[in-house]
Structure formats: C-alpha cells, structure tokens
Specification:
GO terms for molecular function: ATP binding; ATP hydrolysis activity. It holds the Pfam family ABC_tran. This is ABC-2 type transport system ATP-binding protein. The protein contains seven helices and nine strands, in the order E-E-E-H-E-E-H-E-H-H-H-E-H-E-E-H. By secondary structure, the chain is of the alpha/beta class. The protein has a single domain, classed as Rossmann fold (3-Layer(aba) Sandwich), CATH 3.40.50. The protein has a five-stranded parallel sheet with strand order 6-7-8-3-9, sandwiched between helices. A hairpin with a 2-residue loop joins strand 4 and strand 5. It binds adenosine-5'-triphosphate (ATP). Adenosine-5'-triphosphate (ATP) binds next to strand 2 and helix 1.
C-alpha cells in the first residue's frame, strides 16, 4: 500500500501539494488530470525521486527512499531520463545488475524491441525510447509499478503488448494518464488530480 502523509511540495511558481494525505491500498489505480495538474510529480514523489518539502511517503509502511523499497519500485516517466551513452542492451544489463535481477528479454520481444537492443539509447526513436523506459520499470519485477502515460508514443502492436503485460502484472500498479481510452485495463480506483489536490 502506498501512502502519502501530510505531504507538501512547493515549486517556485506554484504549490503542487499542500498537506496531502492519501492512502492507496488498491491494486490498480489510475490518476487522471489535465496537463500540468501534478500527475508526474505525484509519481516522482512515490518513486522517491522528488523529495517533498514536508511529509512522508511510504510503500508497505517503509519510506519509498529506503534501500529495500528502491528495489521494489519501478517507474517509467518522461522526466526519468535514461543514460544515453549505453546501448539498450547495456542499459538493461546494468539495470538488472543494480536491481539484482536476471535479464529476461521476453518482454522486449513482446514489445517488438529486440531489433533495437544494440542501438545506442541516444539513437532510439521516441516510441522505442518509451519501450526501453517501460522495460527498465518492469524488468526487476517491482511490487509497485509507477507509469506515466505508458501508451504515449507506442504503435498499436506495442500498445496491445503493453496492455497484456500490465494485465498480467500482480503488484500494485499506479498509472498517470490523461487518455485512459488507450488502456484496455480495469482499475480499482480512478482519482482525478483535482480531487487529490482539492482534498490536500
Ligand atoms: N522541477 C520543477 N520546477 C518547477 N516547476 C515544476 C517542476 N516540475 C514540475 N513543475 C510544475 O509543476 C506542475 C505539475 O507538473 P507535472 O509534470 O507534475 O504535471 P502533469 O500533470 O504530469 O502534466 P502533463 O500531463 O503535461 O505531463 C506544472 O505546473 C509544472 O510546470
């Protein structure tokens, strides 16, 4: 279960969260909202990649920044940039080394990514970069998977494959999206950002 307790975050231009308390016990959650409403920021906080000014964010009762949770959490978001100097395969090897997992290329094959494993990350097309980002979120079999607009940039075949992969995912899944129509998934809870920020 993911919990935000009295979380505040202010950027120079705006207060994004003000004393937000939010419990997410549901397995499959989709967060909706217009551009700039704070969806990505919420996921970045949940991944421990953005620090709140105040408050605590925990997964299964431990801070998301704990060593144990770093291995349990997977995130794919455009703001999480991939190192460009690796080939895709090198990056996946490195990722699995860091997360102590064995590299299984089945998902890469499902997403139609196999022909691009030897391509340098800097040279990937937008859609293939997205696939690689999704692979880095998924390969270590996280217990909490945070996906920002997971279908953005994917062609039809890859989108179907992604939906199938996510249907089989057994951990907690939190998706941020302004276009849920492209996700053929059922969710236990849909929360508009307006509501999250309104109750904060
Ligand atoms: N590092 C930052 N510094 C200052 N402001 C930021 C920073 N990151 C995000 N913001 C601002 O915070 C607000 C929320 O941004 P965020 O990216 O979380 O929205 P979003 O709902 O994911 O948007 P989109 O649907 O366009 O991806 C925006 O006004 C954005 O400009």
């Amino acid at each position: 279960m993911l919990t935000f307790t009295a979380v505040s975050l202010r950027y120079p231009t705006a207060t994004i969260f003000n004393n937000l308390t939010l419990n997410l016990p549901e397995k499959r959650v989709v967060i909706t909202g217009e551009n700039g409403s704070g969806k990505t920021t919420l996921l970045m906080l949940a991944a421990g990649l953005v620090m709140p000014d105040a408050g605590e964010i925990a997964f299964n009762s431990q801070p998301v920044t704990s060593q144990q949770n770093k291995r349990r959490i997977g995130i794919s978001a455009s703001k999480v940039a991939l190192p460009t100097f690796f080939t895709s395969r090198e990056l996946l090897d490195f990722h699995c080394h860091m997360h102590q997992c064995t590299l299984d290329l089945t998902m890469a094959e499902q997403l139609g990514f196999s022909p691009f494993l030897q391509t340098r990350v800097s040279d990937l097309s937008l859609g293939n970069y997205k696939k690689l980002s999704l692979l880095t979120a998924l390969l270590h079999e996280p217990d909490l998977l945070l996906l920002d607009e997971p279908t953005n940039g994917l062609d039809d075949d890859a989108r179907h494959a992604m939906n199938a992969i996510l249907s089989d995912f057994t951990g907690q899944l939190i998706i941020a999206s302004h276009d849920t129509a492209l996700l053929s998934l059922s969710f236990d809870r849909e929360i508009p950002m307006q509501h999250i920020r309104g109750v904060s």
